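Before any further analysis, backbone shapes were mapped to integers, which produced the following:

***
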Amino acid sequence: MTKCAVLFVCLGNICRSPVAQGVFAQKLGQAGLADQVEVDSAGTAAWHVGKAPDSRMVQAAGERGYDLSYLRARQAVVEDFDKFDHILAMDQENYEDLCHIRPQEAQAKLALFLDYASGVEETEVPDPYYGGQKGFHHVIDLVEAASDGLIESLKL
């Protein structure tokens, strides 16, 4: 029985938001909460719609035991504000892009994902696309911390 729905959003939906979806879904399963929360990811841009996550992120996530192979990119749409209770942007730019498509009457809580991470100095999940492999692992560190905080805040 689903009690809430969470959408993670980055720019292209091939690095940050899919790993957030995969990590959060696995952590929900480990906490016995997988049937209570619907999880999805999207991008504010449509460049990669239908494509698998970046192979470097798939590899880094796999090294930590997260499977992203089943995910495919999609673009965030206005209807997401009706479907999801929480829409979490990876950075300020994507947050602002989501504000532009958000209907006035939307009830979904829109926030930065790292608002849920304790013990983390960053406020945004950096885009690892143009960096080296170390950047992908750093993103996963941040996503794990924020996922733990989000699960705690949902108090399911």
Remarks:
- The chain has a mean pLDDT of 96.
- Residues 4-154 form a domain with the Rossmann fold fold (CATH 3.40.50.2300).
- The two ends are 11 Å apart (CA to CA).
- Residues 76 and 131 are 25 Å apart (CA to CA).
